[in-house]
Amino acid sequence: MLNFLPARTYPLAACLGLSGSLLTGLPTLAQTAPTTLTVQVNKPGAPIAKTMYGLFFEDINFAADGGLYPELVKNKSFELDEHLLGWRGIRGAAALSTYTVSSQQPISATNNHFLRMTATTASPDAGFINEGFRGMGVKQGGEYTFSVYLRKGAGGVSGLNVTLEEGGPGAGPEAGPSGKALAHTRITGLTTEWKKYSVVLKSAGTAEKARLKLTLEGTGTLDLDVVSLFPKDTYKNRENGLRTDLVQLLKDMNPGFLRFPGGCIVEGRNLTERYQWKETIGDVASRVPLVNRWNMEFKHRSTPDYYQSFGLGFFEYFQLSEDIGAEPVPILNVGMACQFNSAEMAPIGGTAAAGPNAGSPHNHEDDDPTLETFIQDALDLIEFANGPASSPWGAKRVAMGHAAPFNLKYIGIGNEQWGPQYLERYEPFMKAVKAKYPNMNIVSSAGPSPDGELFDKATQRLRELKAEVIDEHYYAKPEWFRQNVGRYDNYPTTGTKIFAGEYAAQSVAIGSPDNKNSWDCAISEAAFMTGLERNADKVIMASYAPLFAHVDAWQWTPDMIWFDNLKAYGTPNYYVQKMYSTNPGTTMLPVQRAAGAKNGQDNLFSSATADDKTGEIIVKLVNYSPQARPVTIALQGVKKLGKAGRATVLASADLNAVNSLEQPQNVAPKEEPFKVSSPNVTYTLAPNSFTVLRIPGKR
Question: Which of 264, 384, 544, 680 has the fewest CB atoms within 10 Å distance of its CB?
């Protein structure tokens, strides 16, 4: 899928040219006069918002089911439109006399389909296999909780055999022959009423693409539903927890916020398929799945088996935000379906006309919602997050195990809508939220493009309405990011602030399946981000997008973190974001060059902050050049200068370099101490490098 190219790393010792001895033997450097960057330590600017660098999550590329949410069984409750999606009868179910997905006396009204199997002759092949999400990733010695609801029918079925075995999904209409067994158990004690059974399986081996086999023991009929295989190794060992390695990659970034659940996933292709947060809380087994709007969006990456189970729902998003120390930023539908699809809109007041999918079982609350429905959803969400146990929705949060409020401060109204239709819905929506929760910060949309007439009109109107935050998106070629480093230099310093909510350099073209997470893209984003940091009085939030992608099940590229069923790696873009988010500082410091040279001139980009917590000056430097470049950092007005600094360098001589599962550290940061002898720190930047210097010095 990705065309991985080898990279050559510039020697770190040569990067750290802080003294004459280190410059010895580099005549090309000696002949080049250092560029002086004056950091005005004694003229501090705006504070760096705690939310400055964060995360954007959307369920695209199998980011939730099959990714962050580690349930291994696909379509565990047979509730998808194609009821047996993910399930295959062993050898075409030849050993079963009959099988069907039934709704006769189901477990509940919301979980109203189950699999009924009947065998008239006992056979080890009388059953079904679940393929998982491009297979099931299991580790040797790993423990996995298997649970299922069973009900015995006519005949003498004495048990259910449960086997975790090697081998990916079977090709064609039949599940392939059995692979090596990794774990096995037998469930007995069946009754004629629905009963939940649970057992822990311990895998005898490691397999990236294992599968689950369920077979009848004896003859007769057996009903089964809510089939789950869940790793015990989850983040914080939670019963319905998240995949440990992926959460750790996020926590390691020290993110200021987590925006969720998207993205166009919020809107749906039509209003019936919109994301409804109330459908995603409470008992996991009762959450009704919904088609994922990305499943057939791109013909070149068609994924018809892509659904949302909502095992990862709004409660889990809030909990994840808390776990990684990020402010939760939920985005809610403003009463508009995706404008790239149906552009269906809920009317403002009055009675809604029947939409194209009225009566769908996926929309239990209101088949034909008006704008008031969406506004009430937002008000109820704030109560769910922040309300006391005595409030109706606060009580639901408490019942799920979180007595304390989540302390929600931000809420997004609409994802990426544009035009007058958005603004005429945004205004009453915003006023209703502010009337009940005047301190809530509202994130508003400037549309999918970073310029143009619609963008300008939306920005003007939202500023007139005193929106707290405007969400701007930009996907463009790498050179756009370097050329637009001064984008926010002339934005107003008062009033509405900016959320750079979705951005990523596209190596080929927007939406191209050939885009790569190349070093060229990442270093260009690093350059652009110096412009965000230099304008911390205007920009208070920024996040790369999308966040996750499964190597076997992606729809969009580039993406920040890639994974398979067992492993994950950060791209060069991930390391750029991490270097910013773990080195934010507390106060912006102006950086000047001689003769009024602008940031980015000669492909040298810079920003600086003071970290009042640690007593350091943080200087970020991007050298987008194939040559090493000496610079002098003049710390104007610095106090109590220390002697030992720390450099973090992310560099590659190959702008096409990428990381991979096989080479996850091909382009990765390297750290090394350096000496500081005066307020004029001389440093040599590696070719094609992003460098963060932490210099001990108080302002």
Answer: 680
Q: Which of 316, 344, 416, 533 is catalytic?
A: 416
Three-class DSSP labels, 211-244: EEEEEEECCEEEEEEEEEEEECCEHHHCCCCCEH
Task: Give me the residue spans of the domains in the chain.
Answer: 12-48+586-696, 55-70+235-581, 87-231
| Burial state string for 324-358 with b = 16 or more CB within 10 A and e = fewer than 16 | bebbbbbbbbbbbbbbeebebbbeeeeebeebebe
Encoded tokens for 23:
């410059």
Specify burial of residue 436 (Cβ count, 10 A radius: 0-12, 13-18, 19+). Answer: exposed
- Contact by Cβ (8 Å): 111, 152: no
Looking at the predicted structure, is the pLDDT value of residue 526 above 70? yes
Question: For the sheet containing 410-413, what is the strand order?
Answer: 55-56, 257-260, 327-332, 410-413, 441-445, 469-476, 497-505, 539-544
Q: What is the largest CA-CA distance in the chain?
A: 91
CB under 8 Å, gap of 24 or more: what pairs does 232-241 form?
Answer: 232/142, 232/143, 232/144, 232/145, 232/200, 233/139, 233/142, 233/143, 234/70, 235/323, 236/323, 240/284, 240/311, 240/316, 241/70
CA distance 658 to 478: 15
Name the band, by pLDDT with cuts 50, 70 and 90, for residue 350: low
Looking at residue 178, its pLDDT comes to 64
416 in catalytic set: yes
| 160 within 8 A of 115, measured Cβ to Cβ | no
Confidence of residue 33 (pLDDT cuts 50, 70, 90): confident
- 235: which residues sit within 8 A by CB, 6+ positions away? 241, 242, 243, 244, 247, 248, 323
Considering only CA atoms, give the Rg of the chain.
28
Structure-token pair, residue 445: 């949309």
Task: Give the pLDDT score at 473.
Answer: 97
Distances (CA, A) of 12 to 18, 228, 315: 12, 49, 45
Contact 266, 292 (CB under 8 A): no
Quick one: fold of 12-48+586-696?
Immunoglobulin-like (2.60.40)
Q: Where are the alpha helices (DSSP H) in 608-655?
A: none
Give the residue-averaged pLDDT of 199-216: 98
Superfamily, domain 87-231 = Galactose-binding domain-like (2.60.120.260)
d(CA 351, CA 576): 49
The model carries a pTM of 0.93
Q: CB within 8 A of 593, min separation 6: which ones?
A: 35, 36, 37, 38, 599, 601
Mean pLDDT of 464-474: 97
Average pLDDT score over the chain: 92
**55-70+235-581 in CATH: which number?**
3.20.20.80
